[in-house]
Amino acid sequence: MKSKNPSFKFVLMLFVIGLVYINSIQLHAQKSNEYGSLSFNNAINVSGKQRMFTQKISKAYLYLLNNTDDAQAKRDLLTSQIVFEEQNRVLIQNCKFKETTDRLVKVNELWKNFKNLIDGQPNYDNAKKLIDINTDLLKATNDVVVSIISASKKSIQNNKNSIEEPDAIEDIIELETIINISGRQRMLSQRLAFYYFANQLELKNKNSTQMLRNVFHELDGAINKLLISKFNTPKIDEKIGLAFSKWNTIKKNASKLTNQEFDEAEVYKMSNELTKVFNEITLLYEKVSI
Question: Among 118, 139, 181, 239, fewest CB within 10 Å belongs to which?
């Protein structure tokens, strides 16, 4: 039977087309607010880990100079390289932002020279070279994190009409900032130990002691930023309390750092434990829903 209203089917068709169009826009907005198959929060966390691995690898290399048979350090040196390369591959594979891709390519270029330097049995000549180039690779990995955060902000602004709550935009940006700060603490935990080992007599240069102090103060200051974050859940608060406990063990003995009075194995272990808890905190921040 034909419809009494001949325009009914036409109106219905327009309605369906409209729904499909609206849904496609929303889907595009959702996909545009992602880093490939990763969320931006996840991409910030993963790229932040790359900073940490540059320091963990360097720390393990210097530690093995005097502790040649330490099985854990050998594993750390090897596995950190594997994970670093794989994560950089994933970040490049998922990246659709030219600036970020360019920075990831630069990381790979610096990594080739870095990896060649740490290949083979650790020795003092290569250790000194490693100290000299370490910061270049660290800076390059940090530039990737900054670029991903910038890409996220642009994506949010481009799709702000699809976000129902205006305040959510500010919260998203603020959450990404705290993920970055928390993730950076992992790197600083490793870098502190790296410069402790770099401060030994055979490797020490005019900047070693000051660099160690700089890392110490940056790590100490950033913990307080995490403590007052509005995104803290009871679980995050619990983990931050644990981080404070581990950090205070080091902080109350700050003079032992600059005077090389800690046992090397103790410093190595403390840095890994501190990194682990900051990693747990960062992962919890990554999963916060807005």
Answer: 139
